[in-house]
Structures are given as structure tokens and as C-alpha cells.
TrEMBL record:
Source species of the chain: Lachnospira multipara
Protein name, entry field: Uncharacterized membrane protein YjjP, DUF1212 family
GO biological process, one term: succinate transport
Location of this chain's protein in the cell: Cell membrane
GO molecular function list: transmembrane transporter activity
Entry annotated with the keyword Membrane: yes
Transmembrane segments: 117-136, 142-160, 167-183, 189-211, 232-250, 256-276, 283-302, 308-326, 333-353, 373-394
Record key words, sorted: Cell membrane, Membrane, Transmembrane, Transmembrane helix
Length: 412
């Protein structure tokens, strides 16, 4: 019996680790691991999850105590895998699944091939090209930025294959991106190096991670939120330092036409959906969600709504859409929420904030930094408000037996 419970906890932790790596929130991981252990008969489950560690203690049905700790690697968004893992956990919790079958199905999901380098290069090309337009670049500059984005993805993957530390790999790619962005001007070809640079470095800027760190702290996951925010700042400092070594200008246009930014947000989000490996049946909804969220934010600002409030409303709107789509497609909300908020996250502002710090422009650092934090708070607040309301509604429906979701006895 003791060995059986060790295997149950191991399987639950394996699924929880894979879920986190694929892009699941810490709260989702903790809930999933707990529910699986309860589904197999545990009396009590205590779990602590942070960005690099999972600790689980289970009081078994025969009053034994089993504790396991797992070191968790960093996240690498894979929404297709996230959906499969979520479906497996729902199946285990909703119906009795033999432990051997659980292990076999989990291994089958983990054995599937990673996203191909070609698909990643195409995705980064789309993200880089369209975000170059987003920051004021023209068609020629966007095409050049797209080419550099694909090349940087290949370089980045090669550096990681050499087991190089992620921070060093990003620093090298940042330096290479800035250097390559300036080459046309060195050859007498007039291109906006700043717009090109902002486009081809956007995939590296941890704007989503920084925004999620604020969201984690709002949700009560203070340790996780603080760790993520520190990691984001360190990464952005590395990016800013790499560009500061070779880029001649960091200024980008702020007068880009509203409809151009909405169009570029649409194309950039398409690249994000490919990069994060959404199921093909989810790509259209995910892409439209990103454009919709940005359109709400920018249109509200054009009608005079203050920036902070516009981001709260836009993030709340896309969260409502994501909650609805998650129930239609029977997959995690994260699948639609993450691509939806990407165009809004202040990745460019975060980079420019720390670029000002690297260059010693402290007034600029203060100005950009305050905007970055306010926008991140606004996005996180909108998501948290809608999520909290959705959780309350779902819990009430569960208590009345109106849903098929597995409910813990202690939640009734």
C-alpha cells in the first residue's frame, strides 16, 4: 500500500510538472495535483508550488504520510500539451482510472515530439515582422525584422542545444539582434533600426512573465510572483545591455495609426498561437482574441478613457471571452487567455524602461517604469476580477450538481 501511494504521488507530481512547464499557472498545478490525490482516496493533501519547486504531502487512506519534492524546470508554453494534460486530469478525477493506465497515458503525452524548429522560426518571423509595424516600421522594415526574427530563433535554439545558460543565450541573441538591425544603415540603406530592433527582440522580452507575476501576487501566490518578477527584470536587463552595446537608437514612433496597430496585433498574435503550439482548431479564436483585446484597449484610449482603466476593461473583456471559449472547446482558459493578452502586455515598455536604466536616463526610466507597472497591474486586475467571479459561479453550479466537473468533498 505504501509503495502504491508513492506511485500515485509520483504520477500526480509528474503530471503537475508537465502542466507547469507547458504553461499552466501555479494555482492550476496545485489544484490538479490535489484533486488527483483525492480522487485516489487521499484523506488530506498539502501542496506548495513555486516557480522551481513542487512539494506534496499526502495523508493516505491507511493513515500513512507520503511526501515528495520535485525540482521544476522553467516554462516553455505548449498549449496543445496543456490541453491534453488537462483532459487527462479531468478524466482521472471524474472517473476511476487504474494507476497503470494513468501512467501509460501520461507517458504517451510526454513522449510526443516538441514543436519543430521550422514552426518556431515561422512563428518568430510573424511576431517580429508584425510587431515591427506595431512600433512604427514600414513594410520593408517589417520584412527585414521578420527575417532577423527567424534567424534569432535558430541561433537561440542552437545556443540552448549547447546547454548554455538561458540568460547568456538571450544576451548573445540581443547583441546579435542589435548588430544585425544596424547593418543596413551601415551600408547606406535607410531603415529604422529602432523599429526593426523592437520587432525582432519582442519574442525575448518577458512582458508576459512580468504581467503574470503581478497576477500571481494578486492571486495570493506572493513567492511565485516575486520570483517571476525578479527573473523578468534580470532577463530584460540582459536584453537591454545586449542592445546597448551596438544599437544606435532606442526611440520608436508613438504616433502609429490605431488601425495599423490593431492589424499588426492580429498578425503578431497569429505568430504567438503558432509559437505556443495551440491546436489548429483553436488558432483562429486565439488570434482574433489578441486583436480584440488590443482593439478594446486602444479604442477606449482614443475615446479619452485613461490608459490604466482601458487595460483593466480590455483584459476583463478578453478574460470573459476566454472563459466562454474554454467551455465551448473544453480546454483550459489559459489556451485563449495567454494569446489574448500578449498584444497588451507592456513588453516594449519593460524593455525601454531598463534600456533607460542601462543608458543612465533616470527621468526616462521613472516615466517608462511607472507606465509599465500600471499597465501590468491593470491587465492583472481585469483578469483576476473576471476569474474570481467565474470561479464563484462555477463553484455554485458544482454544488448544485449542474456541471460534470470533479468536485472535492471538502469543496462542497
Amino acid at each position: 500500500m505504501a509503495n502504491r501511494w508513492e506511485q500515485i504521488v509520483k504520477c500526480a507530481l509528474d503530471l503537475g510538472e508537465s502542466l507547469y512547464v507547458a504553461g499552466g499557472e501555479v494555482s492550476r498545478v496545485e489544484s490538479t495535483v490535489s484533486r488527483i490525490c483525492y480522487a485516489y482516496g487521499a484523506k488530506k493533501v498539502d501542496i506548495l508550488g513555486i516557480t522551481s519547486c513542487l512539494i506534496v504531502t499526502v495523508q493516505t487512506d491507511d493513515d500513512r504520510v507520503v511526501t515528495q519534492t520535485r525540482r521544476v524546470p522553467g516554462q516553455d508554453y505548449d498549449m496543445h500539451k496543456l490541453s491534453q494534460l488537462n483532459n487527462l486530469s479531468r478524466c482521472v478525477c471524474g472517473n476511476y482510472v487504474k494507476l497503470e493506465e494513468f501512467r501509460a497515458r501520461l507517458d504517451k503525452i510526454d513522449e510526443k515530439a516538441d514543436v519543430s524548429l521550422f514552426k518556431l522560426a515561422v512563428a518568430w518571423a510573424l511576431v517580429s515582422g508584425f510587431f515591427c509595424i506595431f512600433f512604427g516600421g514600414n513594410i520593408v522594415e517589417a520584412l527585414y525584422s521578420a527575417l532577423l526574427g527567424a534567424l534569432l530563433r535558430v541561433i537561440y535554439s542552437y545556443l540552448l542545444s549547447l546547454s548554455l545558460n538561458n540568460y547568456y543565450a538571450i544576451l548573445i541573441c540581443s547583441f546579435a539582434g542589435g548588430l544585425l538591425a544596424d547593418i543596413p544603415n551601415s551600408l547606406g540603406i535607410p531603415l529604422n533600426a529602432a523599429a526593426v530592433s523592437m520587432g525582432n527582440i519582442m519574442p525575448f522580452v518577458p512582458g508576459l512573465a512580468f504581467t503574470n507575476s503581478i497576477r500571481d501576487m494578486f492571486s495570493g501566490e506572493t513567492i511565485t510572483g516575486l520570483l517571476r518578477s525578479v527573473e523578468s527584470i534580470i532577463l530584460c536587463l540582459g536584453i537591454a545591455f545586449g542592445f546597448a552595446l551596438c544599437t544606435t537608437s532606442s526611440e520608436v514612433r508613438s504616433d502609429v495609426n490605431m488601425w495599423v496597430t490593431i492589424f499588426s496585433a492580429l498578425g503578431g498574435t497569429l505568430g504567438i498561437t503558432l509559437w505556443f503550439n495551440l491546436d489548429y482548431k483553436h488558432i483562429l479564436a486565439g488570434t482574433l482574441g489578441g486583436a480584440f483585446a488590443w482593439a478594446v484597449a486602444i479604442i477606449l484610449q482614443n475615446f479619452g478613457v485613461m490608459e490604466f482603466l482601458s487595460y483593466i476593461i480590455a483584459s476583463a473583456a478578453i478574460t470573459i471571452v476566454a472563459e466562454f471559449l474554454a467551455r465551448v472547446y473544453k480546454c483550459p482558459v489559459t489556451v485563449f487567455l495567454v494569446p489574448g493578452i500578449v498584444p497588451m502586455v507592456p513588453g516594449g515598455l519593460l524593455y525601454r524602461t531598463l534600456r533607460k536604466a542601462v543608458s543612465g536616463d533616470w527621468p526616462g526610466f521613472s516615466s517608462f517604469g511607472i507606465r509599465t507597472i500600471l499597465i501590468s497591474f491593470g491587465i492583472a486586475a481585469g483578469v483576476i476580477i473576471v476569474t474570481a467571479v467565474a470561479d464563484v459561479i462555477t463553484k455554485r453550479l458544482d454544488e448544485r450538481g449542474l456541471t460534470k466537473r470533479f468536485v472535492l468533498k471538502r469543496d462542497r
